């Protein structure tokens, strides 16, 4: 089987790298391992390490870069298809898909713009100029991408059933939607070694810091974690909060963190060595999102045998089993975050038990192999 996989995000050299890029990397590698002949089209500078990865350079223009990307993709896709005769094309995330070859089309939806729009309004998260611009420009363009992609796709993949319900606004036939949870290689971090002396670089101690890992955006709810941490510090003077990530919301977060001791902003982390260092040595990972679908950071934390505290939104409840491998709180629930961080801080045995449950759960339910096999079933349904 020959597949053309189209993803705006794909490591390395991508303009941005989030959960969609991680998903793309895992899926493509897993498909190739199963003998699928995969050609990938993505952004970035041309590379020669893999002749089956095609990178297109585009202007780094906020909001419109994905449209520039798709224009180049469609032209390249036609050229490649004439030579290689693909069996199908798989788009990672919705795009404005026009003039594409007469091939079966699969698209993975990781989110929907309409529901991000609603969450922004309901959460009153318009704290920055960038978030207001997102509301006025990004969301309308995204709505159009969702609707167009939903209609031209022969099959749609969603990471959880909650997202299937959210796709109703695209008037998509639910029979062509397949729920396939994102997967991770549980052994990914096992193969990575690090020097614990690196903890000194960040001025942190083992199991004496709370970790946030992810994009700094208003919908990620990091500001509520900061408020919770401010209250926790009154009782636990030595505890620290490490915020690993970058984004337009960072200046606002730094502003509200002023005057609160021991909040460390360490920037975007892509090194597996540093990620493992942070995951394995933290007290707990917190995912305080206002809107979310199926965050890869939870899978990564679980693979590193860590308890996770997360908002009960999107597909997070399918990853965090309350009281088993972490705790679920309502979005924006500052008091709930405080209670469960304190509980984990005061009970090392509970942390260990939850960490063990996390690892077993990810090995059983959320592996790359499982994700790839279920994706192949979707592919074969098109023949």
SSE topology string: EHEEHEEHHEHEHEHEHEHEHEHEHHH
| Fraction of residues in H or I helices | 40-55%
Main beta sheet: strand number and arrangement? 7 strands, parallel
The shape, in one word, is: elongated
Count every beta strand, where a strand is a DSSP E run of 2 or more residues: 13
Strand order of the largest sheet: 3-2-1-4-5-6-7
Tally of helical runs:
14
- Total separate domains: 2
* Known CATH architecture of the largest domain: 3-Layer(aba) Sandwich
**Cα radius of gyration in angstroms:** 21 Å
Given helix and strand content, the structural type is alpha/beta
Output the CATH topology of the largest domain.
Answer: Rossmann fold
Low-confidence stretches: none
State the separation between the terminal residues, measured CA to CA. Answer: 11 Å
Tell me the name of the CATH homologous superfamily of the largest domain: Glycogen Phosphorylase B
Beta-strand content bin: 15-25%
Which CATH first-tier class of the largest domain would you pick?
Alpha Beta
Overall pLDDT confidence: 88
